[in-house]
Write the structure tokens for this entry.
Amino acid sequence: MMSWHLVRLALPRRQIVQVIWLGSVAAMTASCGDDDRTITSPVAQGSTWFQVQQILATNCTSCHTQGTSQARQSGLILTKDVAYAELVGQAPTNPAALADGLLRVGTDGPVSLPTSLLWEKINAPNEDHFSNDHGQYGTLMPPPPQRPLTYGELELIRKWIFAGAPETGAVADVALLENVDRYTYGPEDFVALSPPATGTQLHLGPFDVLSQAEREFFYYQALENDEPVYVDRVEIAMRQGSHHFILYGFSERTPEWVIPAAGVFRDLRDDEGTPILANYRAMPFHQFFVGTQWPAFNMDMPAGVALKIPANFAFDMNAHYVNRSNSAVTGEVFVNLHYVDPGRIEHVAEVIDFNNTRFSLPAGQTTTLEQLFTFDERANVFQLFSHAHELNTQFRVEIAGGARDGEEVYFSNDWEHPPIVEYDPPMVLESGEGFRLMATYENTRDRDVAFGLLSTDEMMILFGLYYPD
């Protein structure tokens, strides 16, 4: 199973983009996905919209055509003559989606993907988010038990959306459609990752998480690499219930007495929730390597780019599970690090870890925090993702400085599964330029909230990857 949190953007320097989707199809039960007819459209066949039309014709048009009950319920016709006008810039008929400010397909940049009903309803790999947070939006499309769109189809539609959902022009490589793998609907047993052909696998657990509790711990493990290795792909698979998983290394200034014993679960809190202070002492020396909040994570570096792992390296693995059920649950994590031949590497990637820890969110108030971070070298940024906790309602990122000052390049309104956005080509920021982080929090509690490690505390972090010239 793959995850669909990765978003590759191909943006003109001054362009931001968006998408949004389909009206209500809550009561849809008829078959909507087995029509293999092709489209003979006046739209140029080299355009991405032409490819999107073909996807719609194969999976959606048989139901969303004039006179069907599904078309009457949703108010949406997807035949080739009207599909674009029906989708782009149109409000949905689903009352909940309309009240939430969604469109069918919009054209307003990174804001649009997480506020798009189209994406919400076709993004089957994120079904947990859809069913838990937006069940009132109706049914995933095509409706189960039919097969969801392929990963290639999803990626092409996502690129089209991020490019502004244009009716003409090619904004996504049709070769994406060669990926015909699909997500599998419904609850299923956790599937461990197969070890990489070239690389190494890390494994945590299984481990218990008590009911109505959070468990966060570190686990130190040597990589046993006699020489430096280079990683161009990372896979992570986690049992449900994880808040996050992070691979940390240690900085060169780490004192010897801080290095922990290998193979030991170092919990940050005991079973009563009391901090175990001795297990915090390594944290000031941690250096972020890779992490995710997604139960299934699959990240490929751009061609010629890789993360470097020094010789004789060790990881401090950090797992955080939140269990708000009335019974204990099991956690488990697999990590695959795929190695690449150093001779193929043109750029060594560097990690972005912009962290604002000094803030207070007053009780009962909505607060927007703004923080500026800059680079001290020319940076080719090819990935960004945010990290916050449950009070966070929006996380925006703008370019700060230079000719593109104020251009919004990242948006998230889902603190649990923030999008991991990849930029193709990379955003080029000169020394002294950087990012302006703007995060909004709605503190509905009767106490002030500050930075902290629990899910009931808050955070404001921008992670990412870049390479210097």
